[in-house]
Design a protein that fits this description.
112 residues; mainly alpha
Length: 112
């Protein structure tokens, strides 16, 4: 199955890792991913992928925001679950704390 990259990510120019480590391209990518994560018009799968990417790029920088998204009852449940899973995969104390702060979902929301 072919993988389609959402336009905000696809438009970041491809550069060698040595250039990326300089920070400029990484910052641009983080900005685009943050925009995608915040955009309610982007589907939940793409937003979840953006959350996972942000957590992988700079977990300390994004853990607080990801925790807030995972705890927000206004966020679609599928996205909250994906973000919570990303927090658990960070394997950092900040990620574990953010995950523990997520309230349990009610049965109406599909929680256990």
């Amino acid at each position: 199955m072919p993988v389609t990259v959402p336009a905000p990510v696809a438009s970041v120019p491809s550069r060698p890792a040595s250039v990326l480590s300089g920070g400029t391209a990484v910052t641009a990518l983080e900005n685009r991913l943050s925009e995608m994560l915040a955009a309610g018009t982007v589907d939940a799968q793409a937003r979840a992928a953006a959350a996972r990417a942000l957590a992988a790029i700079s977990p300390d920088k994004h853990v607080k925001r990801l925790g807030a998204i995972a705890a927000d009852p206004q966020v679609p449940p599928a996205l909250r679950d994906a973000v919570a899973q990303s927090l658990g995969e960070l394997n950092t104390e900040a990620g574990r704390e953010a995950k523990r702060a997520i309230p349990a979902r009610s049965a109406e929301e599909g929680g256990s």
